[in-house]
Design a protein that fits this description.
The chain has 13 helices and ten strands. It is an alpha/beta fold. It has two domains: 94 residues, no CATH class; 218 residues, Flavodoxin domain (Rossmann fold, 3-Layer(aba) Sandwich), CATH 3.40.50.360. Helix 9 packs across helix 13. The chain is globular.
């Protein structure tokens, strides 16, 4: 196994330092707990370490503790620090945990700010209207598009909205992206997953048997939608995050995509399609659930669909739950943020090979 290296950014010296820690991943896992338990804490460091350990049930605690202690040891060795204080413990925890744990850390670091940005928006209309609403268009590396000779002059873009709220923030961002697609010459269609007849995957695995031609044996609206996906040159997936993961509608939808994977891992879908992924959530930080968007990008990639545009949108919580007094998504009040969806839609069509 190759030598394992970590590249950590040292915020104190503003330089990159490369440290070779262990010769193999397995040797890292065998690091003696006695050595890890020799870490010295300041009083506030010990207190926050115990708070963090209290997040998890006992069945997970020992494993999480070992990972956190390992990360602390790396940071302390890098900076030649003898005692771990609160800031260092939180930094180490953030390096090992998804960003969705940030609310917990924000409460510890600055409860007044957390109250102003989060808690007050549930009881004070003025605070609700003042909360930050932002959209991030993910950066893309430069790419050269090689046009296929059979590329349609007016490519077909189909969007799937996994939000149950018509006129909500996810819905409006998709609409704006499709507007950009049409401006770039595409034909577009939007399908609201909440309104179609879509059953669950029943786990029969018929789609994996040799000689079976149909994509899925379940007879519902997915039979028509499968063909739309096959016909599309580009796909847009938009979804809200209510419970730390994609909405249930999207989860069910992607379960039904399993029919595209055939006997001996052959695929119904050929490479060449591109996609845009749009994720929305309440917590007012743009990277809180980027890992969920990454998982959707990965699912699409497994089906040979390359995501070339992605949007994260946040700030949709509080007393009206991201809506205005007319029950319309508040993103409509932020034209500069909506413009990012329009621009991404235009770029999506231009990136169709």
């Amino acid at each position: 196994m190759a030598t394992m290296s970590f590249i950590l950014y040292d915020f104190q010296t503003t330089c990159y330092t490369k440290i070779k820690i262990y010769s193999t991943v397995s040797s890292m896992r065998r690091l003696p707990m006695k050595a890890l338990n020799n870490i010295q804490f300041t009083a506030d460091g010990q207190a926050v370490f115990e708070k963090i350990m209290g997040i998890w049930p006992p069945i997970l605690r020992q494993r999480k503790q070992a990972h956190l202690l390992q990360m602390l040891q790396l940071l302390m060795a890098l900076r030649r620090i003898r005692s771990a204080d609160q800031a260092l413990v939180i930094e180490a925890a953030r390096l090992m945990l998804p960003k969705s744990y940030d609310p917990f850390f924000h409460m510890i670091e600055d409860m007044k700010k957390f109250k102003r940005l989060i808690l007050d928006t549930f009881s004070d209309l003025k605070a609700y209207n003042a909360r930050p609403v932002r959209v991030k268009r993910w950066k893309q590396p430069p790419r050269r598009i090689r046009r296929r000779p059979d590329r349609p002059a007016n490519p077909y873009v189909v969007a799937f909205c996994a939000s149950p709220r018509k006129g909500g923030n996810t819905d409006l961002l998709i609409d704006k992206a499709l507007e950009g697609c049409r401006a770039a010459g595409a034909q577009t269609e939007k399908i609201n997953l909440h309104t179609i007849d879509m059953g669950f995957c029943i786990g029969c695995r018929k789609c994996k048997e040799p000689g079976v031609d149909m994509i899925c044996v379940v007879k519902d609206d997915m039979q028509t939608i499968y063909q739309k996906i096959i016909d599309a040159q580009a796909i847009i997936i938009g979804f809200p995050i209510y419970t730390g993961r994609e909405a249930a509608q999207l989860s069910t939808f992607f379960d039904r995509w399993d029919g595209f994977e055939r006997y001996l891992f052959k695929s119904y879908l050929e490479p060449g399609r591109v996609a845009m992924v749009i994720g929305t959530w309440g917590y007012p930080y743009l990277d809180t659930y980027d890992h969920v968007i990454e998982s959707i990008i990965t699912i699409l990639n497994l089906h040979k669909i390359e995501t070339v545009e992605a949007l994260s949108a946040c700030g949709f919580e509080g007393m009206l739950h991201g809506l205005d007094s007319t029950r319309r998504g508040v993103i409509a009040q932020y034209p500069r943020e909506l413009q990012k969806a329009y621009d991404a839609g235009m770029a999506l069509v231009r990136k169709i090979p």
